[in-house]
Design a protein that fits this description.
Elements: E1 15-18, H1 32-42, E2 50-53, H2 65-79, E3 84-89, H3 94-107, E4 111-114, H4 128-140, E5 146-150, H5 161-170, E6 174-179, H6 184-195, E7 202-205, H7 211-217, E8 221-224, H8 227-242, H9 246-263, H10 271-281, H11 300-313, H12 315-320
Parallel strand pairs: 1-8, 2-3, 3-4, 4-5, 5-6, 6-7, 7-8
Helix pairs in contact: 1-2, 2-3, 3-4, 4-5, 5-6, 7-8, 8-9, 9-11, 10-11
């Protein structure tokens, strides 16, 4: 039975959506106390309107379904109605994605972030009906609003602008797009294509290396795993761009640049592990433990570089003032 009637009342907020990390103990169990502390701290930053759980930043692929459901419940209990809790739906089969969406709704999620199946990298651009049907099918399994994850076209999993627009035209439950095209021209093209749909579809930039520049082009906010560490800076960038204060927006971007230079350095697979190291430095996480196949950061020089980046970004003072 189709649950989502594509009501025009479906919406997701503009603003800053940090993607939460998942803290683990030394025995690889979820550290619930640290997770609640983390999520609660994120909501203290201005303009944070949603928290994303069960995404790449949260090591969702290493979590059991019971753990994913528990993280939703923990986040909802921590933030109440203050901000939305959005859960990632990562699945390679349509029926699995449908099942996840329904279970996450029952667990209390306020919306879902729908990832494309990895098989799309083999040519979904040439089978646009496949992408439309996938999103439509997941929408039918839940009454929640959907934020669609737009990957870079170079990944093979991104939707060309015409397909992105078609999905939004045909599936009214898609009310937001996590836009990570990586290229300014693609980003601007997608913003323009969705601007005249006849209904609002939020564009939330996830272009971490140029968040300020992307918001200067357009958009309604930010989704970022870097927000797990730098939510106050992302909020500052968002606020300054809204106010057309480019001088202060550039200053905030320089603070963010100090972080992205180390967090996004090769190998990129270590980026979220580095964020955990930073959260340990800030006293939010007791350990930077990750689950395999990820490995810990053990190079003392890299740990020191991460610590220096926190100082350069001014985040220690921000955290201490909470």
């Amino acid at each position: 039975m189709e649950k989502n009637t594509e009501s025009p009342e479906l919406t997701l907020p503009a603003g800053v959506w940090p993607a939460a990390l998942t803290p683990f103990s030394h025995t690889l169990e979820i550290d619930r106390e640290a997770f609640v502390r983390h999520v609660t701290a994120l909501t203290q930053a201005p303009h944070v309107t949603a928290i994303v759980v069960n995404g790449h930043a949260g090591e969702a692929s290493s979590l059991s379904q019971a753990e994913r459901l528990e993280l939703i419940a923990l986040a909802k209990a921590a933030v109440g109605t203050q901000v939305a809790v959005i859960s990632g739906v990562i699945a390679d089969a349509t029926d699995e994605a449908e099942s996840l969406a329904g279970e996450f709704e029952r667990a209390g999620a306020d919306g879902i972030l729908l990832f494309p199946p990895s098989g799309f990298r083999l040519g979904v651009q040439d089978r646009p009906d496949m992408a439309v049907e996938f999103v439509r099918s997941v929408s039918s399994a839940t009454s929640l609003p959907i934020c669609l994850f737009q990957y870079p076209l170079s990944s093979g999993m991104g939707y060309p602008t015409s397909l992105l627009r078609t999905i939004c035209e045909q599936v009214g439950a898609v009310v937001a797009v996590k836009e990570s095209s990586d290229y300014p021209a693609d980003y601007e093209r997608n913003c323009a294509a969705l601007a005249d749909l006849g209904r609002p579809v939020r564009i939330l930039s996830s272009n971490n290396a140029w968040l300020f520049a992307s918001l200067a082009i357009g958009g309604d906010g930010i989704i970022s795993g870097i927000g797990s560490v730098a939510a106050p800076i992302l909020s500052d960038i968002y606020d300054r761009v809204l106010a057309d204060d480019l001088v202060e927006a550039r200053a905030a971007q320089r603070r963010l640049f100090a972080l992205t230079e180390v967090l996004l350095a090769p190998p990129l697979c270590d980026s979220h592990t580095r964020m955990k190291v930073m959260l340990c430095e800030l006293g939010i996480f007791p350990t930077a433990t990750v689950r395999g196949p990820l490995l810990p950061i053990t190079d003392p020089g890299e740990v020191q570089a991460l610590s220096r980046a926190l100082d350069a970004a001014g985040l220690r003072a921000t955290t201490a003032s909470r």
